[in-house]
Predict the 3D structure of the following.
Amino acid sequence: MKYYLIAGEASGDLHASNLMKSIKNIDEDANFRFFGGDLMQRQGGTLVKHIREMAYMGFIPVLLNLRTILRNLEFCKKDIVAYSPDVVVLIDYPGFNLKVAKYLKQNTSIPVVYYISPKVWAWKKYRIKSFKKYVDRMLSILPFEVEFYKKHNYPIDYVGNPTVDAITTRPQSKQTFQEFARLNNLSDKPIIALLAGSRKQEIEDNLPTMLKSIETFNDHQIVIAGAPAIEMDFYKKSISNHKVELIFGQTYNILAQAQVALVTSGTATLEAALLNVPQVVCYKTPFPKLSYWGFKNLLHTPYISLVNLIAGKEVVKELFAKFFSIENIREETERLLFDSTYRQSMLDEYHHIKKTLGSQNASDKAAILIYGFIASED
């Protein structure tokens, strides 16, 4: 069968690639065409547009690149129709993907499956109406979403969390610190890992402050996990005055060997938790006080990190908006490094989060549901 997948960010590329691998295990004739990244490309098929041409974040970057975004959208619609797939699988990336879903439902008979629900429970609840109209099947990877959608009379399938699968099956899972340090020419000092986001705007906003906040921890080495769709030269203006190591393509290895991590909000917070790395969430916003007011009064969620959302309470400190500062990040990092009781409490909460997510193979379950759905449509 023919599958058209659309992922617009690094995490979507990862989860879509694992889904493609699972689809191939049950459909030996699977043919893929997709918007995505390097990981999806390794699974075979045709890469139409790379995520580095799509990952725009924030009002100003989106506005400045609006012509490119609209051009990508129109091209995508036409390309899907020309390819005539048996199903279109949308992976998160709602601003783009919901427009595609609407077009397909209004102009074609191609079925649409959404894998990894957009975070409408945080804001934009009105998008549930669009799901009901334009999406044939919704597959969720967060357990608390099931109850949320049930309240809105929209049935979804919880398939487990693919990040659990990605962590469990990662290469070099048995790698020791000594091996990791030797292969990457690192010292024997403990590692502070920095994950400053997957998009340029996030990195520009967060990385300089993150670096300044930990520059006094001389007994540790700082290792930045380079985002897969970002070129090395982009990081140079932020790291030129700091003694750091920048490593690409080894995010899980870096986290697995880190003593503590500074992480922007997103999938990376859950990855750090699953790899048992104490972390502090750092996220800069424009107009900090106004942003925090909006978060408390306009959004429908008490937290910004997946770790806290899944736990239903504060497990990791969220230093965003008016709390995002050099002093606050430094203080929390120091506490995670040197307060053993505080550190262990966070690790204990990680254990409960893992139990909540379950151990089912999300990619395989999603693949079975998608393949079965297509078969039932024939």
Summary: The radius of gyration is 21 Å. Residues 66-83 form the longest helix (18 residues). The chain has a mean pLDDT of 91. Residues 193 and 352 are 23 Å apart (CA to CA).
